[in-house]
Design a protein that fits this description.
single chain, mainly alpha, Serine Threonine Protein Phosphatase 5, Tetratricopeptide repeat, Rossmann fold, 5-stranded parallel β-sheet, 5 strands, 4% strand, disordered N terminus
Length: 597
Amino acid sequence: MSPAGAGEDAGPAAALAALLDEARERLAAGRAADAEPLLRQALAGHPQSSAAWNELGRALNNLRRLADAEGAFREALRRDPDMAAAWNNLGHVLRAVGQAGDAHQAFARAVELDPGDGRARRNLAMSFLARGETEAGMAALEQALESDPDDALAHAQLAHALHAGEQPAAARTHYEAALTLRPELTDAAAGLGALHQAEGRYADAGQRYRQVLATDPAHPMARAGLAAILEIEGRYEAGLALLEPRLGDAALPASVADTAARLYRRLGRQSEAMALLDRVAASPHGPADAALLDYTRGGLLEDAGDHAGAFEAFRRANARLPGGFDASGFRRTLDRLIGFFSRERLAALGGSGNDSTQPLFIVGMPRSGTSLVEQIFASHSRVLAGGERTELFAFVRALCDGDTGRWPEAVASIGPARLAEFAGRYLSVPGARDALRMTDKMPANFLNLGLAALLFPKARVIWCRRDPLDTGLSCYCQNFLSEGMAFARRLEDIGLYQQGCLRAMAHWLDVLPLPIHVVDYEQLVGDFEAGARRLVAFAGLDWEAACLRPDQSERVVATASYAQVRRPVYASSVGKSRNYARELEPLRQSLAAPWGD
């Protein structure tokens, strides 16, 4: 019997219910266009039905008629202001059209009216995260899981947040929980691929992405992630070929468009890259996606010689993202490290007793040449290149039982046995047994060299230096995702951070019992062979000619320097800051400011 026929037999209420049931079935089957006329029919006879207006809004949303969908949801709420589902659906549409603040209020109202609605709570959590309110967003997801531990989508979204917050172990737990509950959940599988990618496990990441694309060929995270891996590997044409079939999509995700624009740029097709960015930027985006597009736009404008336009794009990108750099806390940290790790204290503290000569720590400011230096060593047959390892920071947290406010004083109560345990764990990585040296190019380890000396009294340290204005500019122009790079959002903070790095390294040169080799980037690229030979000799290694061809190494570099290390050594970035002399005045003043200010 047709829905209309059911109404003739059972009365107006039953007819409305039958029409709504049939419309919902069609919506569930992805037939929004077939559901709309049924809902129009329902409303013709029952214009006061909030449920019918809500379902019509869903159909119109699925048809991407967002303005009409918003109107339908508002009609539903005019008739029933306490309809939680309509508030949640309204928030969904408002978010899609760029009205993030109103969307947040709608999601909050939906949760207030129906705290058990997992979908509304997830939407509210994602709204918090998009606003940069990470703790509130994660708390909302945790509350959703307390109410329903089997909410696979909440697990996946919490995993995304944990990954973004640099908690990979917890993120992996929730990704795996999501996939256990719903193996077909492509967002969780792609997220796990992104986690592998961040860990440098590119084969595993690629496998995950390809599995996702086999079932969901248009999945934006998987498609962009796999293309980004191909970009890092220098396979620009292959990466672009993966993305080009989707570039005409009306609702192209910013991440896909940005990766494609970068690939166009690598291939010298700047005009196509800019045209793509212009088209995608015309649609509303959240702060993180808008910043992503602005960073790439800045690079393209710089290529064209429009330095004023480029700097404005970089400024806009940094302003969109949360800062969070604690300048006063950073000063206190530096002062405490310098005050605690005196020459006498280092001599008196019990070390690990580990006599390994493998560790080679490459430290300094980001964008100061650390990747180039490591790539020189990566080209040597007896060196294991470790990239930006985070173990020393993890050890600091462990030694303080999670309370880093107790560092470095807490190390005084740590015995040799525990230090030996950490040293052993640090050295226990695949490939270490066959290597004479192991590089760790985490630049911020300039903060941890006191601990490094206690763990490995026979380690070596390389300090990379570069013109501070060139370094600061390069930091400002990069889309650093790590919370540890929050200082890079403001020129004033970049200057302070550079001051801190200089103060720390001057102290370590004075008191550290480890040999420290200083490399000036300008000298290294100016006479590359001489500089490379000095580096290899400092590491106690025999010279190998391959060290002169770091761009030909098969090793994959996943830091911000991935494109540069695939080029022959060049000096074009030396003095680049001169193109931005006026714009960099706040950085220049910060570099000259007294440390205590």
